[in-house]
Specification:
single chain; 201 residues; Pnp Oxidase, Chain A; 3-stranded antiparallel β-sheet; 35% strand; FMN binding
Length: 201
Amino acid sequence: MFYRPEDGHGLPHNPFNAIVTPRPIGWISTRGADGSENLAPYSFFNAVAYVPPQVMFASTSAKPDRGDTKDSVANIRDTGVFCVNVVEYAMKDVMNTTSGLWNKDVDEFDKARIERAPCEVIPCSRVAAAPASLECRMTQIVKIEGEHNFLVLGEVVGVHMRDDCLKDGMFDILSFEPLTRLGYRDYSRITEVFSLKRPGE
């Protein structure tokens, strides 16, 4: 099968997200200029550079009470900071609660009964029990093709790792089983790893 996205795929559901899988989930916490807080998951998320460490996420829809975007991007526009929280399998249900299209005055930490902790470097909260959290200063917000598509890039200026996730000096993802996003309404978790050496190593 071949299709041009501009012509449609003719299938019951869009296969694009199912093709580009698995995708890590960036659970983005932000604080608005008025002090209100927001927590929302984004599966168009990844790390993009080592030095300095940088991450990106994309927001692809809008809410009536936020104009051309959603709460996360609106807050980052105002404050210039955000925190990426890693989602473990055990947090799948509370993460899903925070994915709702709640009004901007709804605090998802409270809605999902998630304990928050202050960030160290930026004025924002993080998910206290997350396996890891990355405190970020926004470097760019890029408007990309599509009415409500925004790419947010940030430099990581602080890193939190939960102590039980450190094994023999390494961050052990099997200790918490990262939750990943697949296509449609599907998710998966990482339960095994293997290593490969590059040629010449």
